[in-house]
Design the sequence.
């Protein structure tokens, strides 16, 4: 078993910006922001030949003067400081070599974020979530790989879940997004110099919304969507020379 402790920090400079156009043009300034993160975690099963291994970590971030890309009610983009925020993040992964041919991986995360010291313009959003931060997610993958009659056969499959997040921190831009499944499966047969593969993405042909933004001048209507790519089937033939 291995334990670790990690500390990181970073910042972005401030600047002036021009918001709007014509008679509505306004010059404003946004301040620099800074984030500090402390992470603690552990790993087990790191020995060679271990059939079960995994990771567990927890991180806390303190974010000062959060810079965010926002849109005015008229549709003009601008940058603003939301205030001070904190983020708690926990993640876990588990790897299991069930047999010499079968392997599974399970991973997940959970996030809580709070805008606990907002600027006056966002005072109504005390304890509000930060934009575009999903509250959780996970993924399960499996792989089968074996030599059968001189041919290497491999099959992969995965299903993942992305939790709900919000485009902005206040109305009318507190639009939900996420909350969807992402599925895929693939197979490959190796015939020495030649290979034949079949891959299917978005196996369930989900129609979920990944991101609620497109046109800034109509995003406030709440009707914009960035859907998952439709089910895609790929057949491939490759050769080594």
Sequence:
């Amino acid at each position: 078993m291995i334990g670790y402790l990690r500390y990181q920090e970073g910042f972005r400079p401030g600047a002036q910006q021009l918001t709007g156009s014509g008679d509505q043009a306004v010059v404003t300034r946004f301040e620099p922001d800074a984030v500090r993160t402390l992470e603690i975690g552990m790993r087990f099963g790191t020995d060679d030949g271990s059939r079960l291994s995994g990771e567990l970590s927890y991180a806390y971030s303190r974010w000062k003067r959060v810079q965010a890309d926002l849109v005015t009610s008229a549709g003009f983009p601008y940058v603003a400081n939301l205030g001070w925020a904190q983020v708690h993040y926990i993640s876990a992964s588990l790897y299991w070599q069930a047999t010499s041919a079968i392997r599974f991986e399970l991973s997940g995360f959970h996030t809580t974020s709070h805008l606990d010291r907002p600027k006056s313009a966002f005072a109504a959003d005390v304890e509000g979530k930060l934009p575009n931060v999903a509250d959780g997610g996970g993924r399960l993958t499996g792989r089968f790989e074996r030599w059968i009659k001189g041919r290497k056969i491999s099959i992969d499959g995965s299903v993942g879940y992305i939790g709900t997040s919000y485009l902005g921190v206040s109305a009318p831009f507190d639009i939900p997004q996420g909350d969807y499944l992402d599925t895929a499966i693939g197979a490959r047969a190796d015939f020495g110099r030649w290979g034949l593969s079949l891959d299917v993405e978005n196996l369930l042909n989900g129609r979920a919304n990944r991101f609620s933004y497109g046109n800034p001048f109509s995003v406030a209507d709440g009707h914009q969507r960035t859907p998952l790519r439709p089910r895609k089937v790929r057949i491939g033939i490759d050769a080594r020379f």
Q: What stands out?
A: The chain has no helices and 14 strands. The chain has a mean pLDDT of 89. The domain at 2-239 is CATH 2.40.170.20 (Maltoporin; Chain A). The two ends are 44 Å apart (CA to CA).
